[in-house]
Structures are given as C-alpha cells and as structure tokens.
Amino acid sequence: MGVPGDAHHVAATAHHWSGREARLLRHALRLSVRSFAGYLGVAARTVAKWESGGSATVPRPDTQAILDTALSRAEPEARRRFDLLLHQAEPAPAPEPAASGYDYDAWADDLDRTMACLGRQEFALARTLLDRWLRRYEPNSNDTQGMHLYGRSLRLLGEVQQDQGELHGPLSAQQTYRKALRVFTELDTPRRVAQIELKLVVLDEMAGRLESAARRYESLTEDERLSEHDRIRARLWVGTALSKRGLNETATRHIVPAIRNFETMEEPEDWSIAHQKLALAHRGAGDLTAAAQAIDVALTHRVNDTPLQKVRLETAHAHILVSDRATRHNGLSMLENCARVSAEFGLFHQLQSIDGIRRTFERQA
C-alpha cells in the first residue's frame, strides 16, 4: 500500500469524498474498520461514523486530503478494485430502474443501517429495512447495480435469520443464502459467490453436520476466490468443527495457526474469537488450565462487545467453569445470565446451546 500511484491512477481519486466513498476505499484496501482507521491516522469511531452516515456524511477538508493521499498511495490492484467499486456504486445509466422508482442511494444507505442494526442485534429494525427493498425490487439481470444491492440484501437477511437460529426450512437462512448465491453467480462475482458458500457451511456446522462442514471448510482454506482473511476464518472454523466432534487435539492444529495469522494481519477481533475457540478445544481435551488461560486472553482482549459476541464469549467461559466441580456453581449462574440475554435479544440458537450445556451439568451440580 505504500507504493506511490502513477499519474493515471492519481487522477482517478474521488472528486468528492463521503462516507460511502470512504467505505469503498476501505473495502478496496481489504482492511477492517480498525485497521483502516490506523492506516489513515484517525479514530476507528470516526470511520464507523462516516460509514453509518453513508453519502450524507462528508469528512472535513483536511480528512478528504488524507483519503486522497491514501488512494494515490495504494497498490495498483487496490486502486483498480476501488475504481470498480466506485463504478458499481454509481447510479445506473439505464432508464428502467429510475422509471421504476428505485433510489439506489437510499437502498445502499439502508444496507449500511442494517449492518449497524445487526451489530446491535436489533433484528426487527434490520428486517424492516431489508423488507422494504426485497419486497419492492423485481430482479432484472440487465440491472447490474440493482442486482448487486438485491444480492447484498439477501445476504444480510440471511445473517439476521442465522443469528436468530432460523437455519433450515422454507423461510430460513439457508434458503435466503441460496437465493443470494444464484444472484451473485448470475452477476459473475466469484468472491461474493465463495463468501455465500462459506456462509452455507457455517449453517451446516451450526446444525451439527460437523464432518461435512470440516471438509468443506478445508477446501475453502485454499480457495483463491476468497480474501486471505476469509481463508483464515475458514481455517479457524475447521478447528471449530473438529472440536465439536471431539477431535480436540487435531482442532488445535488448525486454530493455533489461525491465531498467528490474525495477529500478523492485525485483526484483533478475530484474534480474540480464535482464543475463545482454542479455549473450548482445550476444555474438550480435558486441559482446563490451558482452557482458562485461553479464555482469559479472549476476555481481556475482547473487541466487539455486542450482545451476541458477549453471549458467545461468556457462554464459552461458563462452559469451562462448569467443567470443574470447584467452579461449577459460578458457571451455572453465568449460563443463567447468558440465557436471559439471549432471550432478550432473540438469539435462539445461542439459547439452545446454553440449554444443552446446562442440562449436561445440572445433574452433576
């Protein structure tokens, strides 16, 4: 990213920076919000504010100059990605979408709002924002921009359904992801297709199809359609599926390298989550000392304290505590609190997992 751009690409910088263009630049550079903020030398909350405001948010002139410099110094491939994303984000020149009354700027802004709602587990509002477009839009293969927004909307709806435990069935995350897969396949966007394929494997793992999930995760770790970040996540999730199968020592051989990779990539959130997965693998192997050390790292370095991540992390902690008779009572109390939070926010898959852990250990308390 430190290679200066040539004259042609410097001229390709955005004429006007808003929250939307800043988000596209971050995606082109393949950086997390935190890493992008560090790259620019601004606070992470500043970047988050830009992106949540979308095209209605305009950074200060001095910050726009920073964004100009960041784009001009980006690697050629990143600049090409930005040009492509910027082109895709522009209003379609064809008259049909406009004649049909589609406001693509408003749609993209609603998708940004939906992502913020997902982070706060505000599922009802997220569904409202998505439904207003999914019910209104008529898929049209000649309308590339509209189809991209339609595919993104389906993916986000799948994430809402997944987080609420609606995994399989006629109106489920699985069916929604499959619709998104067909859209991105038609659009010939291999990376989006591979990301949805990865999402479908996650559903299989959540549904208990652990052997097939581990195999499919393994194949995706070498899939060049995915970004390096997504391939490392797939490696971590190989370990997760193996740990759930009771193959805990084998699982750690996938999880530990993923931890190192996340550290190298400066992805603190995934690094913390990977320690949570490692803790559960150690617990499954009967090494409660190592499990306690790993969960302590995850708790100390937690990045995203949303209700969902808090429940996941504290459920893992409680699972380790209830595995030791000396701390079982504290663990069961923690699980009770996790169950209350899960019920409050509609995290029904997490609630099922918590109930399973409680049933296993309450008889031994």
From TrEMBL:
Domain of life, per lineage: Bacteria
Protein name, entry field: Helix-turn-helix domain-containing protein
